[in-house]
Amino acid sequence: MLLLAASAWAGDNVKHYTLDPVHTRVMFTVEHAGYSNAIGTVSGSTGSLRFDPDDWSSAQLQVRVPMQRVDMGDEKWNRATQARNLLDTEAFPEATFISTAIEPIDPQHASVTGMLTLHGISREIVMQVKLNALKRYPLPPFRRTVGFSASTTISRADFGIDAWSSLIGDRVDLRIEAEAQASRGPAGAAEDSMGAPAKADAAGGDEAAADDTGHDTETVP
C-alpha cells in the first residue's frame, strides 16, 4: 500500500480523512472516431487525505483506483477497454495518484500537482480542485465529511496507451467527484471535534440504523 510521507502538522484544523469508495468516482471522456465523446467511469477508489481548510498547502493525498472496475456502460466495450492493447488491467490492475504540491487559489479552490501512475507509467499532472463542503454527515455516526470536485486532462499516449489511434482520441478529460470521512486514529488524531446532533431525523420518527461508514445500513443515499 502506498504511504503518505511523514510530515509535521500545525494547527488544530488538520484532519486525517479516508476516501469513501461508494461516493468517490472517476469519470473520463475520450473522442470516439470523431462521432462523439465516449464516457466511462471508475468506482471504488480508496485512499487517504490530510487536510486543513485554513492551509491547503499542507494537504497530502494518496489514491488507489481499481482499473478493473472501468465501466463504459456495455460489457463488450468494458472488455475491449480493459484488454491488453489498451488499459491491460490484468497486468496493471490499479492506477495511483500521490500529491506532491498544492497551490491554494482561494478558500474553495486549489491547483494540486502530483504523480499519476497509469498502465505502469508515472507522469506528473496538475488537477484543478474545488472544495464543495466540509461538515458533519447527516446520518449516524455524524462523522465529519469533506467533498471535492476535481478535473484535469491527460494524453493516453503519455502512459503508453496508444492503440487504435485512428479510432480513439489521445486527449482524455478526467473529472473526479470525491467524499472522504474523518478517520479514527491513535490519540484522536483524526477524531471529529464538531458537536454531534442529539439524534437523527428519520422517516416515521425512528432513528436510522447506521454502520461505521456513516451510512444507513438499509439504504445508502
From TrEMBL:
The Lipid/polyisoprenoid-binding YceI-like domain, residue ranges: 16-181
Protein name listed in UniProt: Lipid/polyisoprenoid-binding YceI-like domain-containing protein
Domain of life: Bacteria
Residue ranges, annotated region (Disordered): 181-221
SUPFAM superfamilies linked: YceI-like
InterPro entries xrefs: Lipid/polyisoprenoid-bd_YceI, TTHA0802/YceI-like_sf
Biased composition (Basic and acidic residues): 212-221
Pfam families with a match to the protein in the record: YceI
Leader sequence segment: none
Biased segments, Low complexity type: 195-207
